[in-house]
Amino acid sequence: MQEATVYRAGTVALVGRPNVGKSTLLNRLVGQKLSITSARPQTTRHRIVGIVSQPAAQFVFVDTPGLQGRHAGRLNRALNQTASEGVRRDEVFVSFLDALSFGAADRAVLARAPRDRPVILAINKVDAVPDKTRLLPFIDELARVHPFAAIVPISARTGRQVPDLLAAIGPHLPAGASLYAQDDLTDRSERFLAAEFLREKLFRLLGDELPYATAVEVEQFEAAGRLRRIGASIIVDRPAQKAIIIGKGGEKLKTIATQAREDMEKLFGGRVYLEVWVRVRRGWMDDPRTLRALGYE
Ligand SMILES: Nc1nc2c(ncn2[C@@H]2O[C@H](COP(=O)(O)OP(=O)(O)O)[C@@H](O)[C@H]2O)c(=O)[nH]1
Ligand SMILES: [Mg+2]
User: Fold this and answer.
1) Which of 60, 96, 137, 297 could pair with 291 in a Cys bridge, judged by C-beta atoms 3.0 to 4.6 Å apart?
2) Atom of ligand 1 lying closest to residue 158 CA
């Protein structure tokens, strides 16, 4: 006789210090780019959900901004509020490490993981470890640090052992009905994702500190059949920043907008007409109205 399968559904928080690959994994799991990534720390500013539906389980992965130190003023406080809210609500935790590195920042993240919920350790970026025999002693060492429910070495970039990670999480989801429709990929709107794709290009294409002083607001979003007309503003703090983003002869802004448009067309499955402006709004990072309009508060 076959045992009746219990349907399980729940939220799974992806936690870890900046740059360990949380957003890359979310995208890999969902099979679409939803959460923006870059080589710079603290790219992710919003709580974003990526949904994986299987016949017997629904995983609702939650990518949260880690605790922030790079952004300024009230924006930084709002981001830290978002980061700590995640920890209260979520049911299973996946804690990330870069393969073979376990430092003070990683220890601090683990110390905040709730003791009453299962924590699964994902050791990411194993593709970057040439000598795989070094993984075993590393896993043994980590097993002594926290009572992990499981430890799974993965590569979010190549997808290696990502199914094993799902298999390790599944049994820890609570029994219950699905939280989203079976074909939902995320809880976020196309409008939100459009702003995020632009923001990603700022993080990838601009120098050092500038991305942390920018935000993106979608002012116009119209869908007609498979065509979308999107108008967006890049918000900066000072005129000098505006000049850098526009670049010589508008070249920089053109690259930013073209790359963002390509991402949008891929996800939305249709043509996008994208217009982008750069606006100076002095002190936007401390302005409650702007922060609210941008969804940070
Ligand atoms: N080699 C390698 N790099 C990765 C892997 N996963 C993520 N990265 C890179 O690590 C950087 C940070 O990734 P991201 O997902 O933004 O990290 P987050 O801050 O934890 O969300 C990016 O440059 C990724 O391409 C992986 O499995 N292998
Ligand atoms: Mg991220």
Assistant:
1) 297
2) 27
Could you say which DSSP state residue 134 is in? G
pLDDT of residue 86: 62
- Integer Cα distance of 183 and 25 in angstroms: 19
pLDDT, position 58: 97
Q: Which residues of 10-34 are buried (b: 16+ CB within 10 A; e: fewer)?
A: bbbbbbbbbbbbbbbbbbbbbeebb
Q: Which residue positions in the chain have pLDDT lower than 70?
A: 1-4, 86-88
DSSP conformation letters of 167-228:
HHHGGGSPBS--SS-TT--BSS-HHHHHHHHHHHHHHHHS-TTGGGG-EEEEEEEEEETTEE
User: To which residue do tokens 């995208």 refer?
Assistant: 27
> Residue 40 is encoded by which pair of tokens?
């710079």
> Are the C-beta atoms of residues 271 and 265 closer than 8 Å to each other?
yes
Q: Which ligand 1 atom sits nearest the alpha carbon of residue 27?
A: 15
Spatial CA neighbour of 120 closest among 141, 142, 105, 103: 142
With tokens 């979310």, the residue in question is 26
